[in-house]
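Quick start: read one record
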Amino acid sequence: QVLLVDSGGGLVQTGVSLSLSCGASGSGFSNNAMAWYGQAAGKERELVVAITRGQSTYYLDSVKGRFTISRDNAKSTLFLQMNNLKPEDTAMYYCAASRRIHITTEEEIDYWGQGTQVTVSS
């Protein structure tokens, strides 16, 4: 069993940066594919960024060039560096872990963080 704890969200202005982190307790972090999902109010939860255990990454088109996902396996921690934030980035961001090689669907997610709210004012 893995417990994921998200942190780092907040209320910021357009253009500001935030750094989210997700600490994982339990074994097996280095073998998990990890991701950040975002869910805006009234919308479906969607995959924003993901990283495999082999360091391959995926980025939603809207965040390419602005967001960077990374992981520190020694510390069992996942990060999301969010630069040049825009109002459309406003969402609850959830850390997610999968025992799969990589993440393609939510059905493949085995563990979820509680979520951290990112709100970007115009």
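The chain has a mean pLDDT of 95.
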